[in-house]
């Protein structure tokens, strides 16, 4: 994680002056590139902060050991429900939201309740039915 943090930090620091120079060269009249470069810099710096913060809590990751074995990374990575249909519904709802942003705002207003219902269904999936806690 240390290497990834350094890479994202360097890219973020590099993109800030690049974005400013790009804005100066276009006299800040081109409104797609300048904000996009600065937004990319902010996202890279966010990832740099997150990776640094995570590295302080988990300093010795198995993939950073050059002498490590594949079995060193074995273990529990979390719990996943392979039979869940809620991610599909969330994907469909988000697709409708994005299409609504491209076409007209009222489509977004129609899709937001469906997206909220899908997120609530996914969050509370294990609180009812056959798999309730």
Write the layout of secondary structure elements.
Blueprint: H1 2-25, H2 33-57, H3 86-103, H4 105-123
Helix pairs in contact: 1-2, 3-4
Description of the structure:
The structure is a single chain. By secondary structure, this protein is mainly α. Helices cover 65% and strands 0% of the residues. The chain has helices at residues 2-25, 33-57, 86-103, 105-123. The protein is flat, with a radius of gyration of 22 Å.
Characteristics:
mainly alpha, single chain, 4 helices, 133 residues
Query: Strand pairing plus helix content: what structural class?
Result: mainly alpha
The tally of helices reads 4
Low-confidence stretches: none
Main sheet: strands, sense, barrel: none
What value does the Rg take, in angstroms?
A: 22 Å
Distance between the termini: 35 Å
Average pLDDT: 87
* Shape category: flat
Q: How do the helices and strands follow one another from N- to C-terminus?
A: HHHH
Q: Percent of residues in beta strands?
A: under 5%
| Number of DSSP E strands | 0
Overall helicity: 55-70%
């Amino acid at each position: 994680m240390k290497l990834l943090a350094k890479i994202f930090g360097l890219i973020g620091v590099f993109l800030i002056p690049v974005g400013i120079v790009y804005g100066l060269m276009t006299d800040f009249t081109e409104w797609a590139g300048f904000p996009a470069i600065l937004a990319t810099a902010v996202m890279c710096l966010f990832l740099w902060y997150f990776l640094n913060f995570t590295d302080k809590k988990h300093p010795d990751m198995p993939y950073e050991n050059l002498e490590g074995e594949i079995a060193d990374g074995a273990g529990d990575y979390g719990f996943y429900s392979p039979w869940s249909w809620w991610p599909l519904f969330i994907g469909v709802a988000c697709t409708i939201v994005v299409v609504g942003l491209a076409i007209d705002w009222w489509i977004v207003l129609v899709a937001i309740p469906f997206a909220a219902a899908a997120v609530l269904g996914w969050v509370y999936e294990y609180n009812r039915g056959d798999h309730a806690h």
